[in-house]
Amino acid sequence: MRRFRFGVTARIVAVLVVLGVAVFPLYWMFVTALSSNSDLFADQPRLTPDLGQFGVFVDALAEGKAAGWLLNSLIIAVGTMVISVGLGIPLGYALSRFSFWGKAVLTVVLLFTQMLPEALMVVPLFALFRRFELLDSLAGLVLVNSAFVLPIVALILKGAIDGIPKELEEAARADGARPFTTLTRINMPLIAPSIAATAVIAFFHAWNEYVFAVTFIFNPELQPASVGIANFIGELGTPIQTVMAVAFLFTLPAVAFYLLVQKYVVSGMTAGAVKG
Q1: Where are the transmembrane segments (predicted)?
Q2: Which of 29-38, 61-70, 180-189 comes out lowest in average pLDDT?
Q3: Which of 2, 92, 187, 259 has an alpha carbon 20 to 30 Å from 59's alpha carbon atom?
């Protein structure tokens, strides 16, 4: 009995430690944002927020462009997620269920694209975007982010569909169902956890992306928050409280989205990695 209680206590302590490590950076950003200059450079760091400094959040949203940056980031992330998942589902289904010439090569190419650093593609993509007038456009960022995240989305969903017995689809085809109906009525409900997992991957990729955003966007009003926060860093000084306040606000939507779908993430990633 004592061993059982000790095991339960140890697990609770371990969970609390992991939770503290995960939450502490977010808490420290909040504390730093609500600290005065004297507290920031004091010998002893302030461990609790000074709620009297809460105006820094109001100033960041009212005087600056933080609200617009967050909206731009949300548009880019949601657009990337919708396009990547929307195209990744039929692509993953085709790779899993259909036989066609070059299928193995296509799969390898999709995997190879994940090894290419974004910085390597900046110059050719910049020339391509300038030709098609996609510079200084949120739509351009959505397209380029979707192109980079689509391969991994398709491969994860392919693995998930591989685990679905083909007998279910054969029974549906015997009843006259077409491939599209089979995909939407049978496969998609069964791979819903994997779809949620890939949606998280696509959302976070676009939400945190910096290289393409800082290269392809010139208008400050179209910049996402990942670029806008970096603009606070100046040669003569950096408003640390404002930077931390905007960074805290930048983190909240991503955390909220993950908490909304987190119960599907682990099961979805596992389903996409195991066949049978």
Answers
A1: 12-30, 69-93, 105-126, 138-157, 188-207, 240-261
A2: 61-70
A3: 259
Furthest-apart CA pair in the chain: how many Å?
A: 76
Structural domain boundaries enclosing 41: 1-53
CA distance 90 to 214: 32
Q: What tokens were used for 17?
A: 């430690």
Q: Please name the residue that has the structure tokens 């657009």.
A: 79
Same domain assignment for residues 38 and 150:
no
Task: Give the lowest-confidence range in 59-63, 65-69, 106-110, 245-249.
Answer: 59-63
Q: How far apart are CA 233 and CA 214, in angstroms?
A: 14
For residue 157, is pLDDT > 60? yes
Answer yes or no: do 113 and 14 share one domain. no
Structural domain includes residue 119? yes
Q: CA–CA separation, 132 vs 262, rounded Å?
A: 38
Q: Rg for the chain (alpha carbons), in Å?
A: 23
Say whether pLDDT at 276 is over 50: no
Domain assignment of residue 276, yes or no: no
74 with 114, same domain: the answer is yes
What does the DSSP 8-state code read for residue 86?
H
Instruction: Tell me which residue of 129, 118, 133 sits closest to 226, measured CA to CA.
Output: 118
Phi, then psi, of 243 in degrees rounded to 5: -60, -45
pLDDT, mean of residues 71-87: 95
Domain holding 244: CATH number? 1.10.3720.10
Confidence category of residue 3, pLDDT binned at 50, 70, 90: low
Residue 170 binned pLDDT confidence (cut-offs 50, 70, 90):
confident
The last residue of one of the domains, among 20, 37, 53, is 53
